[in-house]
Specification:
By secondary structure, this protein is α/β, with parallel strands linked by helices. The protein has two domains: 165 residues, Periplasmic binding protein-like II (D-Maltodextrin-Binding Protein, domain 2), CATH 3.40.190.10; 191 residues, 3-Layer(aba) Sandwich (D-Maltodextrin-Binding Protein, domain 2), CATH 3.40.190. The protein is 45% helix and 14% strand. It is built from 18 helices and twelve strands. Strands 5, 6, 7, 8, 9, 11 and 12 form a seven-stranded mixed β-sheet that branches. A five-stranded mixed β-sheet has the order 2-1-3-10-4. Helix 2 links the parallel strand 1 and strand 2. Helix 1 runs antiparallel to helix 3. The longest helix has 17 residues. One of its GO terms (biological process) is maltose transport.
Amino acid sequence: MKLKRFLSIIMALSMTTAVFTPVYASEEKEKLTLWDFHNGSEAESVQEMVDEYNQSQDKVEIEYSSVNQTDYTTTLVTTAYANGECPDILWVEPATYKKFTEAGMLADLSSYYTDDLKKDILPSYLEAATGDDGKIYTLPFECETLGLFYDADVLKEEGIEPPTTWEELKSAAEKLTTDDRYGIVLPVEKTAYTLFNWWPFMWMDDADIYDADGNVTIGSDNMADALDFWGSFYQNGYCPSSLQSGPWSIDNIANGVAAMQIGGTYMINAAEEYNKDGHNIGVVPLPTPEGKDAVTVAGGQMLGVSSQSKDVDAAADFIFWCFGSDDTTNVVKWCTETKFAYPVRQSIIDNNKDLFQEGIKATFTEFYDTARPEPQYSAEVSDIMGDTLQAVMFGGSSGEEAAKDAQEKIEALK
């Protein structure tokens, strides 16, 4: 089967939402493609931006498609690139940034940044968009952090306070697990999203894959301890081994699947809608080991331009029109209406402070400053870390066994 036809079949099978921009002008408009992995209100919001941009000028027509997230982040985009058919505009996450840049898939966007824009973007996010060669390959625009969501009514019925420590979290998950309900929902698949949820638990126990000098430290006792804690929820049956709703969906709590769930700022709007309908969903910072400082992770999506794009200038114009211009309407709407996330531009945060002090948002704002940027590891290291988690989640391995195995594998990469 020819690769081009194979790619078409993958697209057809994996596409969860496919929206194509209507043509507003003549067929002479240059066609550029945009792929992402959104659905629901997020896909609708992207489509609205695409439509507005297409109507704003008569040179370019953006055609937008949204596909299954797992396919997008694993094989779909890289397969398209290998076949010389990469979309012009790509949605990029920290977990895929290094894979895309190492493969030469992203165009250099440095020249499209103004000095004022670079000064406005929080330094850690501009750094996350910058390659080892000093070139800026993406435009970051949002920051997402994690907390512990919970069904306040269920916890009250069981006489349980929202947990603040690891010991309390494990005890609560055990007590809240019944024949009809799990104590907690955590991600179950080997994906970048599972790693995103894992990072703060690793950091809270003073563990890491490398130390400051670049030495491999994944085999440490602290890492083994953190892995044992993470794996205990799966091994003891406090967490489901499969999910009908994604691990990023508050539906897991609202529909009674579980009483607690690790989740991000992107779940806030949906949680507050459920609360309007009689639910009582709350959130607290991620519980910590006894005596340790609270830590959460800061992820965030970015936009990039494919190095294979037929018109890098036009594609870059679109993404900077969306999220990098002086008109911040799109950023504010995306971060406060479409979903909830923190803008990475300080001026937008300063000019919209009241929006970050409403309802559940206010709780996230309280521990916003405990966030560390999501790390960017090579595809090989991320794959090993994913296997390590699966080993303690479903493979019956102890934290010590899994950490030791990972140490050997990462050292062998040198």
